[in-house]
Amino acid sequence: MLHLALGCVGTALQVGGQVGTSVARIVGPDGKLYARATTTCAIFESTPVAP
Length: 51
Hints:
Helices cover 0% and strands 55% of the residues. The protein is mainly beta. It has a three-stranded antiparallel β-sheet, with no helix packed on it. The radius of gyration is 16 Å and the shape is elongated. It starts with 6 loop residues before the first strand and ends in a 9-residue tail after the last strand. InterPro entries: HotDog_dom_sf.
């Protein structure tokens, strides 16, 4: 079994009024890319819930 110390960096690529996009990268100690993921998120105002 191979044991590596991996790092993850997430970046917001674009944030608008209703939609945002971001990317995450998982890299090894030598800079080798092991995984990359992107997502698109809907941004909306939520209503507070009473306790």
